[in-house]
Specification:
This protein is of the alpha/beta class. 30% of the residues lie in helices and 15% in strands. A 7-stranded mixed β-sheet has the order 3-2-1-4-5-7-6, with helices on both faces. The radius of gyration is 19 Å and the shape is globular.
């Protein structure tokens, strides 16, 4: 898939002028078609790819034509792999998974492909409570956001899914390369969750060091970013259920100035 084709296409682009997606870019790694996600995925998900791994749930946001989803099912043989896609709705894009992937109906019948808006918290709650959090279901360990690539949608994925991932799991956010629709994720959202990673608070002065995302405090073990992708590792704190309101992206989500502790004098 395009997730790992950057390495192969880099030489073709630079030496032969082939497979160049953005030749105008100054940084050479940004010019070829494809990404370089292989290193991060292998590092974080390598143990999940073993045939003797404990069963777990995996969720992809953004099925599209299913190439990525098919790859995950092969790479993660012990995973119960779910995917959410908006374009497979009746009013969706004509060039969606219904015509692109021969296993489209199979995935629907298996109740693993869920057709709806991954930015709609009400819909996410339905998928989670009715299709995934079933009695006896394996634990949710991995979520990958590869949907609209819009900052607000990516941030909403983090707010909703991270608390529900079991300890030690991972949430990946792809395609955070510089663009008008994605930039706020790296410039506004990431600095706040990074601040909360180091949050301690002050019992004597509780308003001096407020958490930007209170529902995520203590849930993040680490944040690891490589070019155009970040992964948030879950801490050992137990997964928790949040209300609909608590699961929504707060007003400061893409505006760090609205988080008091991000302002000068509160660092």
């Amino acid at each position: 898939t395009d997730k790992v084709q950057g390495q192969k296409n880099l030489h073709l682009c630079l030496k032969e002028g082939k497979m160049c997606n953005e030749p105008k870019h100054v940084r050479e790694e940004c010019q070829p078609f494809g990404h370089f996600y292989h290193t991060l995925y292998q590092q974080k998900l390598g143990s999940y790819s073993h045939k003797d791994a404990e069963p777990f749930q995996f969720l992809e946001v953004g099925f599209f034509n299913g190439n990525g989803y098919d790859m995950y099912r092969k790479f993660l043989p012990r995973g119960e792999c779910h995917s959410i896609e908006i374009s497979c709705l009746p009013h969706g894009d004509k060039n969606d998974g219904k015509t692109w992937n021969p296993k489209y109906q199979q995935y629907l019948d298996e109740n693993l492909l869920h057709c709806g808006d991954a930015n709609d918290v009400n819909y996410l709650m339905d998928v989670w409570t009715k299709e995934m959090k079933r009695p006896g279901a394996p634990p949710l360990k991995v979520v990958v956001d590869d949907g609209s690539h819009e900052a607000a949608h990516m941030a909403q994925s983090v707010l909703f899914w991270l608390p529900r991932i079991e300890p030690g799991g991972f949430l990946f956010v792809e395609d955070i390369q510089p663009s008008s629709v994605a930039n706020a994720f790296t410039t506004q959202f990431l600095p706040q969750i990074m601040k909360d990673l180091h949050y301690c608070g002050d019992k004597d002065k509780p308003t001096e060091d407020e958490a930007c995302f209170p529902t995520l405090v203590g849930m993040v073990q680490s944040i690891h970013c490589e070019m155009h992708i970040c992964v948030i590792e879950r801490s050992q704190a137990p997964a928790k259920e949040l209300s609909l309101e608590e699961s929504k992206l707060p007003t400061n989500g893409l505006d760090l100035k609205k988080c008091k502790s991000m302002l000068p004098g509160h660092w």
